């Protein structure tokens, strides 16, 4: 479609113009359940007394850089008949996951990313897999109560079965009645019980940039309450169309009468890797994402295949774990600075 753009602002405008995000809303689960351990995740090192042990890995030996950038990938429909650049085929989705495995990426949820709760093996890189709009091609349950064949969740579980180092976790930003499931009453608890995160994508997929502040609050709170009815506590939100409210901070906290909502991170639509959650320039209300896409098509230069190529070609820019969740390690010459609140955990080399 359009030629590659030269600025992020232009790209976001282009993404919005072609946004496929017009599907009905779907709810998202929240945090208590999201913290469930993932079976494929490596067990943290523990001493005989059960306390965490410091990493024995020299950060320099794995080129650790916990101030590096983190790709947050954005998916919509998984379909054998793609209609827009927002659609991916099951084969393309699987191939992208296998690429991530081969390049030592380990998925974490959006909530774990915004919380800086990144317990990864030494040398691994975090990646956040996000799905918008609650499309049934992302997740549905078959008659036996298992993820339906061909859905994103089914494919993730199959990749994890073949590659134990891959954690089958993702974040699903949903509107009302996600996945064709009224209230998300069956689907959302299943996701949470299997280590997935459910996030808020507003009740009716409204453009928050065109809504009044009162409408913004109602859209977020209504969806927050729908998710909570399934027993979950949502912690993150994705802006429909990537459009932010005029009133700063309204995505992260608001009240309607006596009711209040609070979120710890809000995600955009475009168009580049996100800062480390420990970096001084981490902005929780404006976290960029990267659309999953091959290296061709509209704005491909800002999408996943090209960005993963760029990160592989410039590994020093990428977040690489030191294997020790207690410390934030990076080279003394690393670009950027840690946020002041993390100063006590910093370890440079
Ligand atoms: Zn959407």
What report would you give on this structure?
- The protein is α/β, with parallel strands linked by helices and 349 residues long.
- The protein has a single domain (26-36, 60-348), classed as TIM Barrel (Alpha-Beta Barrel).
- The chain has 8 helices and 12 strands.
- Strands 1, 2, 3, 4, 5 and 10 form a 6-stranded parallel β-sheet that branches. Strands 6-9 form a two-stranded parallel ribbon. A two-stranded antiparallel ribbon has the order 7-8.
- Helix 3 runs parallel beside helix 5.
- The chain is globular.
- It starts with 7 loop residues before the first helix and ends with a strand.
- Bound molecules: zinc ion.
- Residues 21, 132-133, 201, 205, 240 line the site of zinc ion.
- Zinc ion (ZN) binds at residues 21, 132-133, 201, 205, 240.
Helices, strands, pairings?
Blueprint: H1 8-17, H2 31-34, E1 72-75, H3 90-102, E2 105-108, H4 110-115, E3 125-132, H5 152-162, E4 171-174, H6 187-193, E5 197-200, H7 213-228, E6 236-238, E7 253-256, E8 259-262, E9 265-267, E10 290-291, H8 304-313, E11 328-330, E12 346-348
Parallel strand pairs: 1-3, 1-10, 2-3, 3-4, 4-5, 6-9, 11-12
Antiparallel strand pairs: 7-8
Helix pairs in contact: 3-5
The structure holds zinc ion.
The site of zinc ion has 6 residues, from loops.
């Amino acid at each position: 479609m359009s030629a590659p753009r030269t600025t992020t602002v232009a790209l976001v405008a282009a993404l919005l113009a072609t946004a496929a995000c017009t599907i009905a809303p779907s709810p998202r689960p929240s945090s208590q359940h999201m913290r469930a351990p993932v079976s494929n995740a490596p067990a943290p090192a523990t001493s005989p007394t059960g306390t965490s042990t410091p990493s024995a890995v020299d950060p320099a030996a794995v080129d650790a850089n916990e101030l590096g950038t983190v790709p947050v990938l954005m998916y919509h429909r998984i379909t054998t008949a793609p209609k827009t650049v927002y659609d991916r085929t099951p084969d393309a989705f699987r191939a992208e996951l296998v690429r991530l495995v081969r390049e030592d990426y380990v998925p974490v949820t959006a909530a774990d990313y915004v919380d800086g709760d990144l317990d990864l093996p030494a040398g691994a890189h975090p990646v956040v897999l996000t799905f918008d709009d609650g499309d049934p091609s992302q997740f549905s349950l078959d008659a036996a109560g298992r993820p339906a064949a061909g859905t994103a969740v089914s494919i993730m579980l199959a990749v994890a079965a073949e590659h134990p180092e891959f954690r089958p976790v993702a974040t699903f930003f949903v509107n009302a009645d996600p996945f064709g499931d009224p209230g998300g009453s069956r689907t959302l608890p299943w996701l949470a019980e299997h280590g997935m995160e459910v996030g808020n994508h507003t009740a009716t997929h409204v453009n928050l940039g065109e809504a009044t502040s009162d409408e913004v609050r109602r859209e977020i709170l209504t969806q927050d309450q729908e998710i909570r009815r399934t027993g979950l506590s949502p912690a993150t939100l994705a802006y429909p169309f990537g459009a932010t409210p005029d009133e700063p901070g309204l995505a992260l906290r608001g009240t309607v009468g006596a009711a209040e909502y609070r979120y710890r991170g809000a995600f955009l639509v475009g168009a580049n890797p996100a800062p480390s959650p420990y970096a001084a320039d981490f902005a929780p209300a404006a976290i960029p994402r990267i659309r999953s896409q091959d290296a061709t098509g509209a704005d491909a230069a800002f999408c996943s295949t090209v960005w993963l190529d760029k990160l592989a070609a410039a590994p020093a820019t990428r977040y690489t774990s030191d294997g020790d969740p207690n410390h934030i390690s990076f080279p003394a010459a690393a670009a950027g600075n840690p946020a002041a609140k993390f100063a006590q955990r910093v370890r440079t080399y």
